[in-house]
Amino acid sequence: MNYDQTAIRSTAIAALTTAVQHEHDFAGWLADALAAVAARHGSSYALIAGRPGSWEASLVTQLVRGTIGWDDEHLDPVFAHGISLREPAGPADVDLEEVE
Q1: Percent of the chain residues past pLDDT 70, beyond the cut
Q2: What is the DSSP string of 7-68?
Q3: Does residue 100 lie within any of the structural domains?
Q4: pLDDT digits (tens, 9 = 90+) for 1-17
Q5: In a domain, 98, yes or no
Q6: What range defines the domain where residue 47 resides?
Q7: What gap in Å lies between CA 59 and CA 4, rounded to an integer?
Q8: What are phi and psi of 99, to 5 degrees?
């Protein structure tokens, strides 16, 4: 398989941009998305394996482990399928003044 870093980065930026525009809790959405990737790879360490001592890795670790636990104890296979454990935004979460 050929890996095109530029194309992958562009796709990721487009997906993140869309999520920022539509997700009320973008940080929670991002944590769930990273947890899903970690679940697909079997551990949260897989997300930072390339540079485990970097400041970026430290922040990714904090975000993901806040969702799945510090020892991956909540790294459930359900995350691997992209299913969120957070409650979706409902009508009570909508600011009606913004809709008008």
Answers
A1: 75
A2: HHHHHHHHHHHHHHHH-TTHHHHHHHHHHHHHHHHTSGGGGTTTSTTSHHHHHHHHHHHHHH
A3: no
A4: 678 999 999 999 999 99
A5: no
A6: 24-84
A7: 25
A8: -75, -35
